[in-house]
Amino acid sequence: MMQSKKTKFGISSLSLAISFALAGTVVSSQAFAADEEVAKKENVEKIAVVGSRAAPRSIGDSPVPVDIISSDDLKKNGSTDMIDMLVTSVPSFNSRAQPISDAATLVRPVNLRGLPSDSTLILVNGKRRHRASVIAFQGGGINDGAQGPDISVIPGVALKQVEVLRDGAAAQYGSDAIAGVMNFVLKDASEGGSITVSQGEYYEGDGAATTIDGNIGLPLTDDGFVNISAQYKTADATSRSVQRTDAAAIASAGNEFILDPAQTWGNPEIEDDFTVFVNSGFDINDNTHLYAFGNVSSREATGGFYYRNPHNRGNVYSNDGGNTLLVGDVGLAENGVASCSWVGNVPANVGNVLNTSEYQAMVADPNCFSMNQIRPGGYTPQFTGKIEDMSFFTGIKGTSGEWNYDVSAGTGSNKATFGLKNSLNPSLGLATPTDFDTGSYEQVETTFNVDMNRFVTIGGLEDISFATGFEWREESFEIGQGEEASWVAGPYAEQGFNIGSHGFKGFGPESAGKNKRNNIGVYTDVEAYLTDDILLGVALRYENFSTFGDTLNYKLTAQYMATDELSFRASHSTGFRAPTVGQENVVNTQTSIVNGDLIQTFIAPPTNPLAAFYGGETLKPEESVSYAAGFVYEYENLFLTVDYYNIEVTGRIAQSSQITVEASDYDALRAAGVEFPELISAVTYYTNDFDTTTQGVDIVGSYSMDLFSGDAKFSLAYGWTDTTVDKFDEETTDLGKVRRLEDGIPAHRATLTWGQSWDDLSTSIRANYFGEYYATHADDTSDWGSETADAAVTIDLEVSYAVMDNLTVSVGANNIFDQEAQKLKDGTLGELGAVYYESGPFDYNGGYYYGRVNYRF
User: Fold this and answer.
1) How far apart are CA 429 and CA 483, in angstroms?
2) Over 70: is that where the pLDDT of 819 sits?
3) CA-wise closest residue to 163 among 12, 18, 277, 298
4) Which residues pair with 627 in a beta bridge?
5) Which residues contact 146 (CB under 8 A, 6 or more apart)?
6) Cα-flanking dihedrals φ and ψ of residue 611, to 5°?
7) Coil, strand or helix: which one is 801?
8) Shortest CA distance to 97 belongs to which of 264, 306, 297, 265?
9) Mean pLDDT in residue range 598-623
10) How confident is the model at residue 832 (pLDDT cuts 50, 70, 90)?
11) What is the dihedral of CA 349, 355, 359, 365, to 10 degrees?
């Protein structure tokens, strides 16, 4: 192996290449322990490879602040979902539960630094992770329309550590790195392992979850390893619901078919959630190393939808707002001759339509029908999905002469298969099925990388780090056709009955198909110490996409070591995020809330005739300009960082607001090729609609000391995030959507943690502060469904005891004092069966207690 000389700070020159490409804004408290023995005990590896095209470097001395979160730290949480683990460990990382949000219920969107999930690049072992097939159609404002990777499939048991960079790195990695980079480092031990069993449930007595996970390291002869991790879990659904006022009124009028509650707001039921990760490596000789890693994962989820009122649901029960029932004429559908004498004459603006003489006479006529005959109490569809995820990467790395190299290739796919239970295709009349296979989305990505680095001398500057590389990537997005009954226009469509499975129309032949693109990228990194105290770096990356052309981005970084304890750092970069193939081509139908009313919204590609009629255009890449500056202070057991960042994004891609399909446009839409426009209430599409500026300050401090005859560690992380929408299209975006982008997450968030340990006993208590935020009910940004929510504090506690050297028992609770989420305001509570706003920054389900047993071998 090539050796390089060290600077006075003990960092090898070889490791300097990381800094110019990554200028994160915070270093987590987990990353720095004053006592190296404590660090070894916690198995925290003090090395980060995030962004390095040369070699990893020591985090403690790095001019690039990165969060390092160990596997043990991740587990100090009742949840085994990777998203929940990171939310409590990374202050700028946010996510929320999605009780009724179409496909976003299956893959929760996240955000880092106030930007959507597809603005954060996800790596596994330093290699780009494929994105999820699911697109967040109702992603809580910030994530509306986002298509980011599904990190929930990565189990904590498979990880050595997680590295979180909080600065743009598009100049090094390309698209998706506007907000930062997260690298999930897999375990690589060749011996030992663990088995863990966890069980917990919410204070309300629901949501019971069981998780079994294990890890084992095996030797691959004397020169290699195979490390295998597996996890299996299930989780019951939760309900934080009250009976809807409309359903209660119909039930009190004598309708015995109304369920209580008619509609459920809560977490989906998760079944057969399993994942297996394998990481392996083999030393061919002293200079050459082979590696391979990958995963196979699957889970099934069943979540709720909105209640369909049996008196007034448009295009199902009524077409005039609930004054009269929508009555089908069998003869008109079969032979074009009207045969039903009750069309339009059954009153629905009554307490219980089933008891009226008009309804009873209508159903007695075999030539007439209404959907009440199948669903007399209305219905609430259940949205089901199966997520199948896999990946495989292999490569070879080593040294050849003065060069270090890494050549790799890999592929990954994520498939979401959708279904709908307890629904109808009203256009099929009484012959409609009630359960549907509605089709699928599948995302596939293939990547090939060549990375090289070495040191050069130019003039009086020695050991200049030089790195370069090439990347080829292809991605595809495929829509799989659903069963015919889920999308077909039945014989009653022309009478005003909804086409396709109601709530989530299946994908028909016109929607099905595969779209793909490829791109190439070339980068160059140069970095050098101008003096012993001043480090400068520059990165440059060129990319060319087959769909929209090329882009060139750069990054500059600098660090100044004022003293051995104090250093200053700064960065400036440009970046981009390419629209995903899914965003360019996705088709869907969703049910949305506007002013408390349910409307059917068609999501169309921006170039689709319907979308184009209302202003849709071909998507272009987002572009960004970032600035960051801060300092690091480290003295004995104290570590402190303060960082400011500013990210300007132009042409930000988002889902437009619902655009009403006007009756006056029907003829023009038919001429443009849109079928049955009268059955579409509104359309939405993806657009480069916004220019935004996101700025913030992150303050992170940690302090270790001896306390109560044991070891104590205190850590404080505070984040301020502020987003301003500088420009938007008033024709396609309402002010409520703008406010969600600006205020949808708390501007202020803080976490205070006290970890205390003795020989066999350890405790961890964490206080989480969430500032005020703009709360919305589902996707309704009207005054009816939104308000400013109050700040709140939740407390988490865990106690662990080592029964034996290899056996540890833990008990704990998240939100131990059962802090309530923001309740819906007066006048809204109960209208849609909900108690809490679903847009909150912490779990609206309330307190959660758990127990865990861990055996190590």
Assistant:
1) 17
2) yes
3) 18
4) 572, 646
5) 109, 116, 117, 118, 135, 136, 139
6) -65, -45
7) strand
8) 265
9) 87
10) confident
11) 180
Single-letter amino acid code for the residue at 533: D
Q: Are the C-beta atoms of 135 and 587 separated by less than 8 Å? A: no
Q: What contacts 316, CB < 8 A, 6 or more positions away?
A: 308, 326, 371, 424, 426, 497, 498, 502
Q: Tell me, what amino acid is at 87?
A: V
Mean of the per-residue pLDDT values of the chain: 87
Amino acid sitting at position 535 = L
Q: How far apart are CA 55 and CA 48, in angstroms?
A: 9
Residues 699-752: pLDDT tens digits?
888 999 999 999 999 998 898 999 999 999 887 777 888 888 899 899 999 999
* CB-based contact 585:515 (threshold 8 Å): yes
CB 310 within 8 A of CB 317: yes
Return d(Cα 527, Cα 588) in angstroms, integer. 47
Closest CA to 317 of 361, 243, 379: 379
Exposed e or buried b per residue across 639-660, where buried means at least 16 C-beta atoms within 10 angstroms of its C-beta: bbbbbebebbbbbbbbbbbbbe
SS3 588: strand
Please tell me the pTM assigned to this model: 0.90
pLDDT for the residue 43 = 39
Per the CB < 8 A criterion, the answer to whether 422 and 380 are in contact is yes
* Rounded CA separation 126/471 (Å): 14
**Do the Cβ atoms of 681 and 669 come closer than 8 Å?**
no
Q: Which residues of 441-462 are buried (b: 16+ CB within 10 A; e: fewer)?
A: bbbbbbbbbbbbbbbeeeeeee
Hey, which residues does 593 pair with through a beta bridge? Answer: 598
Q: Distance (Å, rounded) from C-alpha 167 to C-alpha 18?
A: 12
Alpha carbons within 13 A on the beta-carbon side of 97 = 24
- Residue 772 CA to residue 840 CA, distance in Å, equals 10
User: Which conformational region is residue 855 in: left (phi greater than 0), alpha (psi within -120 to 50 degrees), or beta?
Assistant: beta
- Find the length of the chain: 857
C-alpha–C-alpha distance, residues 640 and 28, integer Å: 10
**pLDDT of res. 121:** 94
- Do the Cβ atoms of 424 and 374 come closer than 8 Å? yes
Whether the predicted pLDDT of 653 surpasses 70? yes
Residue with tokens 């088709």: 587
Q: Do 593 and 779 contact (CB within 8 A), yes or no? A: yes
